[in-house]
Amino acid sequence: MYAHNPVLDLSSWPAGFGKGQRYAPETEKLKNHYGLTSDQQIKDLHDSPIDKIVEIVKGHYAMLHLLADDDKVVLPDENTLLFEQKIKAARGNIIVIHKPGFGHHPHSFPNPKPIVDFILAHTKI
User: Which of 31, 2, 10 lies closest to 79, judged by CA?
Assistant: First the structure.
């Protein structure tokens, strides 16, 4: 699985219950999707990937995450860095490639070879 600056905790983004900014239109979409009516219900949801580490590790998924270290939208320490820590603690398979000095955009690399190599290495052809 390849992801770039992924949202791994819905209470972090879009809800903004951590250190990040709240994104009101997206938070309303989140509430509508799950049929929620309050912020407390978002906090109690526990349906984010960060909440499903055991299930993810049991799936034996190879994961590659690109992480823009200066992302101010999807905060690294509340999403990918915490997810990586929990996956590794559960003996899961994750590689995180850091992009120092980058914000949430642009995605990918000028040379996407590491991404392509990862995908090809984990694809049955």
Answer: 10
Sequence letter at residue 62: A
Domain 2-121: give its CATH code: 3.40.50.1820
Domain range list for the chain: 2-121
15 vs 96: CA distance, rounded Å = 24
Cross-strand bridge partners of residue 67: 98
| 109-70-117 Cα angle (round to 5) | 25
* pLDDT tens figures, 30-68: 999 999 999 999 999 999 999 999 999 999 999 999 999
Between the alpha carbon of residue 80 and those of residues 6, 36, 90, 124, 125, the distances in Å are 7, 25, 15, 27, 29
> Could you write out the DSSP letters of every residue in 13-48?
TTT--SSS---HHHHHHHHHHHT--SHHHHHTT--S
